[in-house]
Automatic annotation (TrEMBL):
Organism: Rissa tridactyla
UniProt lineage: Eukaryota, Metazoa, Chordata, Craniata, Vertebrata
Pro residues: bias regions: 28-39
Domain Yippee: 65-162
Pfam families in alphabetical order: Yippee-Mis18 (PF03226)
Gene transcribed to yield this protein: Ypel4
Keywords: Metal-binding, Zinc
UniProt-listed InterPro entries: Yippee, Yippee/Mis18/Cereblon, Yippee_fam
PANTHER family assigned to the protein according to its UniProt record, in alphabetical order: PROTEIN YIPPEE-LIKE CG15309-RELATED
Protein name: Protein yippee-like
Length: 165
């Protein structure tokens, strides 16, 4: 019974204050007594509640079908800006858009892509900084000139939102 008494006596202390240690010279607590009150326990907020709200440069209308960043849900493009779904990105399928929002652009560099030599600049989400695809700055073959100024976003980095039934 002594071990059981010690267990019952120490369990509340262990849970509330980390142990049954008394400061030197303090009078011993009677058996079964709880440690002094420590105030209400602090409630932990979920991680999302502790973060500041995200703000984006541009918000697309909620009534339109849109594409958003899969990582942070920043709006990226309206469905009406989609030119083609048959593009290949660095890591899989990609879509070609006329215009996009909430993206930053890196420096242009020349790359040899499946359709020839192009000058492209990587684009990234302004909110979470994830690289999403690239912007065609210049096409060196005449048959590819239609891509200039257009944007590639890889499907693995975007999600469809609003009105996709």
């Amino acid at each position: 019974t002594t071990a059981l008494g010690a267990l019952l006596r120490c369990f509340p202390c262990e849970r509330l204050c980390g142990g049954c240690t008394l400061p030197p010279g303090a009078p011993p607590r009677p058996p079964g007594a709880l440690p002094p009150a420590m105030g209400p326990p602090r409630r932990r907020l979920p991680p999302a509640a502790r973060l500041p709200p995200r703000t984006f440069r541009s918000y697309l209308p909620r009534s339109l079908r849109t594409y958003s960043c899969v990582h942070c849900r920043a709006h990226l493009a309206r469905h009406e800006e989609l030119i083609s779904k048959s593009f290949q990105g660095s890591h899989g399928r990609a879509y070609l858009f006329n215009s996009v929002v909430n993206v930053g652009c890196g420096p242009a560099e020349q790359r040899l892509l499946l359709t020839g030599l192009h000058s492209v600049a990587d684009i990234f989400c302004q909110s979470c900084k994830t690289t999403l695809g690239w912007k065609y700055e210049q096409a060196f073959e005449s048959s590819q000139k239609y891509k200039e100024g257009k944007f590639i976003i890889e499907m693995s980095h975007m999600v469809k939102e609003n009105g996709w039934d």
